[in-house]
Amino acid sequence: MSLHIAVDPAGPTAPYEQLRAQIAEQARDGRLPAGYRLPTVRGLAAELGLAANTVAKAYRALEGDGVVETRGRAGTFVAAAGDAAARAAAEAARAYAGHAHRLGLDEAAALGAVREALRARYGA
Question: What pTM was estimated for this model as a whole?
C-alpha cells in the first residue's frame, strides 16, 4: 500500500489543495488505512517537485480536518478519518444552525442556503 498523488502545478486548483484533497480521499475510501505513516514533508515535496511549504500547508489542513495526526518526530499518520470527519461535520452543522438562528432564518431558509452552497460546491 502506498500513497498515489498527482499534482498539476498549472491546474486551476492550488497544488496544496490538490494534495490535501487526494490524501483526504484516499484516507476516506480506505486506500490509506488509519495508522498509515505519510512521507515526511521534505520527502514528499522532493518526490512531487513541490516546495516543502506547499506540502506542510496541505498536512496542516489535513490535521485541522482530523484526517491526519502528527506525532512529533515519529511523523504524520492517517487518523481514524471516518470518525473525525463525522465529528467535524456535526460540529460545522451545529455552528451553522446557531448562526442561522441568530440571523433569524427559519428552517426552510437555512436548509435552502445549505442546498445552494452544496450545489455550488459540487456542481449538482
Answer: 0.68
C-alpha cell at position 107: 428552517
Instruction: Give start-end residues of each CATH 1.10.10.10 domain in the chain.
Output: 15-79
Length of the chain: 124
Cβ(37)–Cβ(72) below 8 Å: no
Contact, 32 vs 26, CB < 8 A? yes
Q: What pLDDT is attached to residue 6?
A: 94
- Sign of the four-CA dihedral 27, 33, 34, 39: negative
Q: What is the pLDDT of residue 82?
A: 57
Look up residue 24 and give its three cell numbers: 483526504
- For 15-79, CATH gives 1.10.10.10
